[in-house]
Amino acid sequence: MAALRIGGRNYESRLLVGTGKYGDFPTMKAALAASGAQIVTVAVRRLDLTAKGEASLLSWIPEGMELLPNTAGCYTADEAVRTCRLARELGMTTFVKLEVIGDKVTLHPDGEETLKAARELVADGFTVLPYASDDVVLAQKLEQAGCAAVMPLGAPIGSGLGPRNLYNIAILRERVRCPLIVDAGVGTASDAAVVMELGVDGVLVNTAIAAAKDPVRMARAMRLSVEAGREAFLAGRMEKRLYANASSPLGGLIG
Amino acid sequence: MRRSIQLTINGEPHEVPADLTIDALVAHLGLIAVRVAVEQNRRVVRRAEWMAQTVAAGDQIEIVHFMGGG
């Protein structure tokens, strides 16, 4: 399968996965491995200075996976840019998932602050993957700002509702040239397949895997559905028609 | 006895010996240096600067690491 190209790098897997909300690290590690993903998101947080010797997240991320630090929890461009600079120092990577939240209840992104931060980070040499709404004009501005990909939400973060507006995703695909990765809202495997069938370049999944009853199995399901959706997109679906059109020959019936 | 100064580390007040370098501060706090990044007064202190950069009274220090996230 043709590779996903982001920031000058090629990835065989079009599924990106998160590391939040797992019950324990061994399950997380097994799920990350089962997902086949090559890019894994992590959060940057203050160290708890009183909790010495706590287990390190990084030691539970399978060998060879690339880190994509996020700015989750940031509400201003300034906080997000500072967080990215700390992440670069921590992770020795210039890739960042830029996330600037505008509303505490829906966790919808603040487009204005996201764009401001994206411009500053691109100028500072970062490979920027911004979490965004499914607004085509904002996505175009993020692309023009030099972002390596745009990551529109399918539904609110952690909601598992599935993509709420497939028409907007389809419009984004037509009007934005850079890679599109649907980030947030995927609840189960078919949700990932549906957006991949529209031609988006990838899907980022965290809660749908971590909160599944069997996260390892769901990780495998997501891997398969992303592959299936991509193949269906490349295959090109048939035209829809209102009435039946027999699959078997109309002539030669016994009688 | 060495003079002490007050810093704000991760939002909390901390008394530490005066004239510590970032490297020495991380050690003083008992942290595993390889897993943390440090910001001093809103500016990242690159690891190459840790041995030379000292902290001063009133500094705002942030010490962060990676945690699980989406």
Describe this structure in words.
The complex is a heterodimer of chains A (255) and B (70). By secondary structure, chain A is an alpha/beta fold. Chain A has a single domain, classed as TIM Barrel. Helices cover 36% and strands 16% of the residues of chain A. In chain A, strands 5-4-3-10-9 form a five-stranded parallel β-sheet. A three-stranded parallel β-sheet of chain A has the order 6-7-8. The longest helix of chain A has 21 residues, at 215-235. Chain A is globular. Chain B is mostly beta strands and 70 residues long. Chain B has one domain (4-64): Beta-grasp domain (Ubiquitin-like (UB roll)), CATH 3.10.20.30. Chain B contains one helix and five strands. The longest helix of chain B has 7 residues, at 22-28. The A-B interface holds A 18-22, 28, 41-47, 49, 52, 56-58, 67, 69-70, 72, 82, 85-91, 157-158, 184, 204, 206-207 and B 9-12, 29-31, 35-39, 42, 44, 46-47, 62-70.
Question: What is the topology?
Answer:
The complex is a heterodimer of chains A (255) and B (70).
Chain A: E1 4-6, E2 9-11, E3 15-17, H1 25-35, E4 39-46, E5 66-70, H2 77-91, E6 95-98, H3 111-123, E7 127-132, H4 136-144, E8 151-152, H5 166-175, E9 181-183, H6 189-197, E10 202-205, H7 207-210, H8 215-235
Parallel strand pairs in A: 3-4, 3-10, 4-5, 6-7, 7-8, 9-10
Antiparallel strand pairs in A: 1-2
Chain B: E1 4-9, E2 12-17, H1 22-28, E3 37-40, E4 43-45, E5 60-68
